[in-house]
Write a structure and sequence with these properties.
This protein is α/β, with parallel strands linked by helices. It contains 17 helices and 14 strands. The strands form three sheets. A six-stranded parallel beta sheet has the order 2-3-4-5-6-7. A six-stranded mixed beta sheet has the order 9-14-13-12-10-11, with helices on both faces. The N and C termini lie far apart (72 Å). The N terminus is likely disordered.
Length: 502
Amino acid sequence: MTTLVRPGTLTRDALAVLQPGFTGTTPPDWLLRRIGEGLSSVGLFGRNIATPGQLAALTARLRAERDDVLVAIDEEGGDVTRLEVHTGSSFPGNLALGTVDDTALTRAVAAELGRRLAACGVDLNWAPSADVNSDPGNPVIGVRSFGADPELVARHTVAYVEGMQSAGVAACTKHFPGHGDTNVDSHLAMPRVDVDLDTLHARELVPFRAALAAGSKSVMSAHILLPALDPDRPATLSPRILTGLLRQELGYEGLIVTDGMEMQAIASTYGIERGSVLAIAAGADALCVGGGLADEETVLRLRDALVDAVRTGELPEERLADAAARVRALASWTRAHRAGGAGTVPGAVPEEGAAPGTGIGLVAARRALSVTGSRVPLTAPGHVAAFTPVANIAVGDETPWGVGPELARLLPGTTTGTYAADVAVDRVLRDAGQRRIVAVVRDVHRHPWMDQALDGLLAARPDTVVVEMGVNQAPARGALHIATYGAARVCGTAAAEVIAGA
């Protein structure tokens, strides 16, 4: 049994490696109390954010308790936004940026997003996704990836990391060692990547090597099984992958963060307490938990599980201390950048209701569009038929998407109908009346019902405009076909401009 010299230090180290969430737009008393006891990080989600000013006040309150607390967020831009969860993002996501393939643009978008995060007091962003989307049917990555070419993904991952960190916000390159070649969402079950080592090194690992060389301050592990690396444990829990591959072979010395420990790939197989102990023992330094579990009890359960594991000898005390030290080292880096004013200017907190980043974000969204067919614009109000799949859990169902609001602004009187898997084409036609139809789809190649509805609609109304806001894998069809490569608000704005000839 391990002999503990300083049990108080052990408890502080156990709290230091947690990155929990909470509910509400002000920090609860329990969270502030645990920060005082050693909790080093807090994760923010859409439920915590109402306005930029409110967010800045929230982070200031956290730092009043402890000035070196890490405030983390999952703000990829594009489809995955927490800052603009209720309106849609002012920035296109990775696939749109990869489609343009201008690294200077990607760097500028990431820098602007980083400046906005820094202005609100956020200093760790769980982004970018460096996954190579080699499986177009991937249900969880898709437009969150820069693309299917490893070298393209690598150069844009580097540009994103450089842009984000230029603002003093630490990037977190994810999902190591690569979630692109999966057909299962790890929020729901355990995905497998059944490829050989040569393929992993030539494809999945290429962007991560580039990101590490570019100085990514943190890396997030994936809850995926890669039998070529470890046939028994998913990457998050694998010493072979986190310590053997990432630390020793790739030489990474920064912070290793886990993906959400309450995701079913871990929780339903190991449980979050056992999974958390195994993750730290494997080489992870910080445990992300709070997307689904956002209460004090979860924090205490994980803290106690780590302390007990050290006391029983299952988890070496030195490993926990090393993990906590890496968290504190990153906190010191971000605090130094805040003190130096990186990424901030006087009055930088956006005004309430403003949409910072719309400029560079809209420029990027316009450049990403792929337009085929007739460019004859609509001159009268249309009917937007939004074919809506079940939401990706990473994206969530709170964030609006589509072209309806912007098209209605450009063509007043435009209507919108939302249609799910039980859609009948006759209903869409009745809703549209004499209006020209704009069919908006998302990953039509993955949804047979959507594909069939589109066929029926085009047979009845060949002048229908089709807007694909997901991965543009299916053949272009419609009198006008627009691919936006993502469903951010600015992507919808750019598509609406083309439809209306604005």
